[in-house]
Putative fused DNA-binding response regulator (Bacteroides fluxus YIT 12057), 453 residues
Amino acid sequence: MAKKSGNILIVDDNRGVLTALQLLLKPYFEQITTLFSPVTLPSVLREGDWQVVLLDMNFTSGINTGNEGLYWLHEIKKLHPALPVVLFTAYADIDLAVRGIKEGATDFIVKPWDNQKLVETLLNAASASHKKTSAIPGKATGSNNASMTPHAMYWGESPAMQRLRLLVEKVAVTDANILITGENGTGKEMLAREIHALSPRHKQDMVSVDMGAVTESLFESELFGHMKGSFTDAHADRAGKFEAASHSSLFLDEIGNLPYHLQAKLLTAIQRRSIVRVGSNAPIPIDIRLICATNRDLPEMVAKGEFREDLLYRINTIHLEIPSLRERPEDIIPLTERFISRFCKQYDKAPVKLTDGAREKLMLHPWYGNIRELEHAIEKAVIICDNAFLPEELFQLPRRTNVAETAASTLEEMEMQMIRKTLDKCNGNLSAVAAQLGITRQTLYNKMKKYGI
């Protein structure tokens, strides 16, 4: 018999299918690994050397769009760009097959399968993998590419994030309005982009609006558009964000910062599914998927009369809460290693590793700024580092006394303290402050006005 074609990883939620494939493929592959669920797929990919992956397209009962398979295809390609992936589906949809191949799949197999054709397809894919191995080592390349995808959602291994991931997979394929909440720096916009990428609207770019940066006077023009001559600087007709997001997703960040008197205008557009440009009387139908985000407690704001209850119900069909980094400490070191790999490549530095002391220091830090704070800390350390290891001394992390932690008992108080501290550090340079905090200058103005700074 000819030499076996390396290792194959099979991901399918049907145990009968997995058993049948193991028996069928045993003569052709050295190692056959099967997964009943794709949740552990990233870690399994990192631990082995694979020549081909056979990936089912649907894992959630009752949802047969193939979006789950495409999502996991993207995840595999982030880790191992050159690894062949053969898609496996019970739905002979040519459009889906073409879409999967365009997005990186090597081939496509329809259930029920023909044994000979399935074996030939997998062997051909594995053969192609062998030819690329010398040029692109699978494991090393996969690790670097994963870390070099700065805007990819990192789910980690914590139970809280895995629960969130499963919920996201269920709701992303619908058009339900979603409200994302979480502390600053947890990655709310990143999660919004992940939801959009998994949705049927992913072929169009998601449109983002920072509600904290939109001035009250330009709110309607920015969101709903305007007609030529409707105000002094309206030199031409202009579509607003709602129109720009037609047939796509509209992401309204910092929705909690929208002034109360403007909330009614937003509610009207959402309810009627149409907008009217400034200077016009003609309604324009809109077809959007609305995703909102905030770090504020909207139910509490409703109770205080600061946020409309009817608007909250409209934007909150599905609520997704991103846990803080303090709530998932098992993700701190994996995130750190991703950032180290990315910044070493970005700044053309040799790979570096954490010392045991640095690991302990990072694990003990509370990370009130969450992933954004961790990312900035790692970037600074990589830039300064001159050897093969990152010692704990390179991480100058701010310490907070018990009194300070008590004073910062709410998110708003923590945010106010962070702004004041950064203002002092940057000697009042607002552009530098905004850059360090990872927000726009206009958002910084709004927050300073809000807190009376």
Q: What stands out?
A: Residues 115-133 form the longest helix (19 residues).
